[in-house]
Specification:
Largest sheet: 6 strands, mixed
Strand content: 15-25%
CATH superfamily of the largest domain: Glycoside hydrolase, family 3, N-terminal domain
Helix content: 10-25%
Number of helices: 20
Bound molecules: beta-D-glucopyranose
Number of strands: 29
Distance between the termini: 52 Å
Structural class: alpha/beta
Strand order of the largest sheet: 1-2-3-4-6-9
CATH class of the largest domain: Alpha Beta
Shape: globular
């Protein structure tokens, strides 16, 4: 590749200058790449499936489903011609009210890491590059970008800085990314926010250091859209691709890479080697996924739905008139609706089921009459896609809002699914599709004394560029929307059998009604995607025995999560500073450490049967593993490095070619003149071209299993079901370290199907990383040892939830 070609593949062509939300330039035989959201389906496309959101998938605690969803996502992406899927997403660990938590996989790094890993495996197995995002600590929407904050009237100089210590960084925030890298993820998206006062896309410690050096990531780092804040500095810090290609703002046509990168390489500010590295990372990933054979170009447009439309949609000049035939309306859905239905049902969490209200019987045991309440029972009356990027909460909530949303091709609404199911038993069905017309609601709730009432309530959130009902991305609180508390209480005051169905992005405050004796059952359906109705009916009527478990804690109040778990809504500085003072004590670790009783603990969920967990055993797989992981044999020293042509071309050859039509706002690699200036670039004082000593730890050593744990799971109820056996470990109290440990942390889970009276064995492997903590002084993972250098003493508890029934054993002390 020529210098211009290398630059071209590192830089987006500009906002809306191609079919996808991100498009790279092409280079000879190397095609323009299509980067498209997102985590729950192909965004801005027709005839695709809307999968359940990340939080719903996390609620299944089922690795196989996680992977099957990844595979199905990958197939649809590929069939539409997407090269890079912008997902999975890792958010949601920290702030219950954080706007994009629903795109991620709950608040525990182990669970999220497993989900992310399986998603990557599924997606990339289909030859699509997964792009795990957003690196790092992009936990709230408010102030994620300075410009967005300023547009809301705040006098910001820079975006928010999430200030995270080294241990929490490894053990909480970067953990799932490490798992993604372990699975061979091809791409990582750096975040809008700053981390320790350095922007995500120019944070050399994180990109060069943690990601590429420590985790051995060999794919490419792509900026979040307009998250790049500098040119040379970002490139030297480890950014490999700029998206959508513009500079400071969308459609400004003034790139930090593109022609600026060409100039920076020619004048020596960026070593040519670094540009080669960027290009190699992109091209190698493309080959690794097999995209060099049999790969479709994008056959849909993100910007128009007619068969033909402007090729350069983002320009305002004559170029806009140039049309291309793009939309082929390829129906790529296959039979994925079945998988969506299965995941949505398996991820549904049954929180309350007094007197075994659920499941509904059939035939002579069928409910006589059902009355449905709430606007959330039926689809959006304006049309299921009437709000762009799902920027409204009208009708059943199947997704949150923002770039992670997808246009529906079909939507199964709860009301229609319930009514067709009820019909087969001749169950009477009435409904009031209002949240506040109490002249209708109250008489209906008390109408038939033996009716079952179902109340649909919701809570929504999304991405910071849209504001919905006063929530600017992040939720303002954890209250139900549309006065849901009042609706539930009002119905329950008149109806003895009130079942509450919650569609939500995450935890909601249920204190106003959860203990009401007439609230007989509560189902948390999260965000089911397109199969909201069909999956709900499966659980209500017992075709599916619910086995979803909470992937986060539901507290009695938002304050209970702790001061460090609160979204920063008002800037505390012109560069808002958010100190992650809770360290590794996030979510349930906080509740456990401070002895706070939650409403429903992490990992909780009921079913239509019961289980008993017993006989926890532990087997040592590695004797004397050593306190520190093995050093890696440095492949960089043993592998031949690829050497590319190291001669810089004449700048004159990089001047915008004569005769080429220039499209306004399109991003090119060409220079406007051959004068490229000369250095030196004002490098920071510590900048050096001499490689630093390499990180010592071998990643494979961290993933080596040291202990194997088993437990017996017995079904003690009267129907077959699935148990989620969860392994929590407690670090030894007498470890010779000043570090403290949360009372327990999740380090394993298995979803096991057990027949009536049956017993199954669940097996968990604990890796070195699972059993270690991050030692800041040693800059390494380290097994806890006592003062005599003996290792052991962990309590291993297999339980039904973080506080639920279970059984445990303690690991013997041995020489490390
Ligand atoms: C979001 C990313 C998304 C990108 C492209 C950004 O606003 O933060 O998650 O992938 O847009 O749509």
């Amino acid at each position: 590749m020529s210098l211009a070609e290398k630059v071209n593949i590192t830089t987006g062509t500009g906002w809306r200058m191609g079919a996808c939300v991100g498009n790279t330039g092409q280079a000879g035989g190397f095609p323009a790449l299509c980067l498209q959201d997102g985590p729950m389906g192909v965004r801005f496309a027709d005839a695709v499936t809307v999968f359940p959101a990340g939080v719903t998938v996390a609620g299944t605690w089922d690795r196989e489903l996680m992977q099957r969803r990844g595979k199905a996502l990958g197939r649809e992406m590929r069939a539409k011609g997407v090269n890079v899927m912008l997902g999975p997403s890792v958010v949601g660990g920290k702030f219950p009210a954080g706007g994009r938590g629903w795109e991620g996989f709950g608040s525990d790094p182990y669970l999220a890491g497993q989900a992310v890993g399986r998603t990557v495996r599924g997606v990339q197995g289909e030859g699509v590059v997964a792009c795990v995002k957003h690196f790092l600590a992009n936990e709230q929407e408010t102030f994620r970008q300075a410009a967005e904050g300023r547009a809301q009237g705040w006098p910001l100089i820079e975006a928010l800085s999430a200030n995270v210590g080294g241990r929490a960084l490894r053990e909480i925030y970067a953990w799932p990314f490490q798992d993604a890298v372990r699975e061979g993820v091809g791409s990582v998206m750096c975040s809008y926010n700053q981390i320790n006062n350095s922007y995500g896309c120019q944070n050399s410690y994180l990109l060069n250091g943690v990601l590429k050096e420590e985790f051995e990531f060999q794919g490419f780092v792509v900026s979040d859209w307009i998250a790049q804040r500098s040119g040379v500095a970002s490139v030297l810090a480890g950014l490999d691709m700029s998206m959508p290609g513009d500079g400071d703002s969308f459609s400004d046509g003034a790139p930090f890479l593109g022609s600026s990168l060409t100039r920076a390489v020619l004048n020596g500010s960026v070593p040519l080697e670094r540009l080669d590295d960027m290009a190699l990372r992109i091209v190698a990933t493309w080959y690794q996924m097999g995209q060099d054979t049999n790969y479709t170009a994008p056959n849909f447009s993100s910007w128009f739905r007619t068969p033909q439309g402007p090729r350069y949609f983002g320009t305002d000049d004559e170029g806009k008139k140039e049309l291309e035939g793009r939309n082929q309306y390829a129906d790529v859905r296959e039979e994925h609706h079945e998988l969506v239905r299965e995941i949505a049902a398996e991820g549904m969490v049954l929180l309350k089921n007094g007197d075994a209200t659920l499941p509904f019987g059939t035939g002579k045991d069928a409910r006589k009459a059902i009355v449905v309440f709430g606007s959330g029972a039926a689809g959006n009356p304006m049309g299921m896609n009437s709000c762009g990027d799902r920027g409204c909460n009208i009708g059943t909530l199947g997704q949150g809002w923002g770039s992670g949303s997808v246009d529906y091709s079909t939507f199964s609404s709860p009301l229609s699914a319930i009514s067709s199911r009820a019909e087969s038993d001749r169950t009477m069905l009435e409904y009031v599709q209002s949240d506040d017309d109490y002249n209708l609601i109250l008489p209906m709730a008390s109408k038939t004394p033996n009716s079952t009432c179902m109340v649909f309530v919701s809570s929504d959130s999304g991405e910071g560029y849209l504001s919905v009902e006063g929530h600017k991305g992040d939720r303002n609180d954890l209250k139900l929307w549309h006065n849901g508390d009042k609706l539930v209480r009002s119905v329950a005051s008149a109806c003895k059998d009130t079942i509450v169905i919650i569609h939500s992005v995450g935890a909601v405050d249920m204190e106003a009604w959860i203990e009401h004796p007439n609230v007989t059952a509560v189902l948390l359906a999260h965000l089911p995607g397109q199969e909201a109705g069909s999956s709900l009916v499966d659980v209500l009527w017992g075709d599916v025995n619910p086995s979803g478990r909470l992937p986060y804690t539901i507290a009695k109040s938002l304050e209970d999560y702790g001061p460090a778990a609160q979204v920063l809504y008002t800037p505390n500085h012109r560069i808002p500073q958010q100190d992650f003072t809770d360290g590794v004590y996030t979510d349930y670790r906080h509740f456990d450490a401070y002895n706070i009783t939650p409403r429903f603990e992490f990992g909780f969920g009921l079913g239509y049967t019961t289980f008993n967990i017993s006989d926890v055993t532990v087997e040592t797989l590695v004797e004397s593993p050593g306190e520190f992981p093995a050093e890696r044999t440095d492949s960089a020293n043993t592998t031949t490095r690829i050497t590319l042509n190291s001669t810089l071309p004449d700048p004159q050859d990089l001047v915008f070619p004569q005769g080429l039509r220039r499209i306004q706002k399109y991003i090119y690699p060409w220079l406007s003149s051959a004068s490229v200036g000369s250095g030196p670039y004002p490098y920071p004082a510590s900048y050096s071209t001499t490689p630093r000593p390499r990180a010592k730890v071998s990643q494979s050593t961290l993933y080596e299993p040291l202990l194997r744990v088993t437990a017996r799971i017995r079904n003690t109820g009267s129907v077959a079901g699935k148990s989620v056996a969860q392994l929590y470990i407690s670090f030894p109290a007498n470890a010779a370290t000043a570090e403290t440990f949360p009372p327990r942390v999740l380090r394993g889970f298995e979803k096991v199907a057990v027949g009536v009276n049956g017993t199954e064995v669940a097996t968990f492997d604990l890796t070195r990383r699972d059993l270690s903590y991050w030692d800041e002084n040693e800059n390494s993972w380290r097994l806890p040892v006592d003062k005599d250098a003996r290792w052991g003493g962990y309590t291993l508890r297999v339980a039904e939830s973080s506080r639920g029934a279970g059984a445990e054993t303690v690991v013997e002390w041995v020489d490390v």
